[in-house]
Design goal:
By secondary structure, the chain is mostly beta strands. It is 0% helix and 50% strand. The radius of gyration is 18 Å and the shape is globular.
Length: 208
């Protein structure tokens, strides 16, 4: 029974609303038994001391019953490598960035080799695998390319993925995953839910 939350904290400096991440555990009584703030804007990344957490931490975050968690954020790294999903593994008490702008993709995406400028919708599974959303890739057509993935498998790619059970014939391919913070994945990675738009009339293109 654990929780994770994204909030702002007043540090009493010129930047008075510094974003932070809080994690904790509930007791059997339902009250919070422990809590900490392991991530805060401006602090150095645990795995890259020369880089700090940046000015935004996305509100969608994920935590397991074992205490592993994942968030997505920007950092003070170079523009071509600054956006990432950050993971904390409770079993090894270590941080890493499995999905980071400019880093190699763990799956095959035709025309692209590295993660793009947006890495969001951080979901962590019970075995610490990561699911998320990637977009704004560098290269021809990269500005509109979007994917959702679970670990090393793409589950939805724009202009390729065709959702089943559509009410309009013929079935239409995915046009976009609507905004960020929409993807939800079961703890074992076998089920997921998301919101998007199809390549069709605007009166019938939105779907879940």
């Amino acid at each position: 029974q654990r929780f994770i939350l994204i909030a702002s904290v007043d540090r009493g400096a010129s930047e008075t609303d510094n974003e932070c991440v809080g994690v904790g555990e509930f007791a059997a009584s339902g009250l919070v038994s422990s809590a900490s703030m392991p991530i805060i804007e401006g602090a150095p990344l645990p795995f890259e001391a020369s880089t700090n957490y940046g000015t935004f931490i996305r509100t969608h975050a994920s935590i397991t019953n074992a205490g592993s968690y994942a968030i997505s954020c920007d950092t003070t790294a170079a523009t071509a490598t600054d956006e990432m999903i950050i993971r904390y593994r409770a079993s090894t008490m270590s941080f890493d960035a499995p999905s980071r702008e400019g880093s190699p993709l763990p799956f095959t995406l035709t025309g692209f080799t590295n993660f793009g400028a947006v890495n969001s919708d951080a979901n962590i599974l019970s075995d610490d695998r990561i699911a998320g959303r990637g977009s704004t890739f560098t290269g021809t057509g990269g500005s509109t390319k979007q994917v959702t993935y679970i670990d090393t498998t793409i589950i939805g790619e724009t202009d390729v993925y065709v959702p089943g059970g559509q009410l309009v014939a013929p079935d239409q391919p995915l046009d976009a995953w609507t905004s960020t913070a929409r993807l939800r994945v079961s703890t074992d990675g076998t089920r997921w839910m998301n919101r998007g738009d199809l390549n069709g009339p605007t009166t019938s293109d939105a779907f879940i």
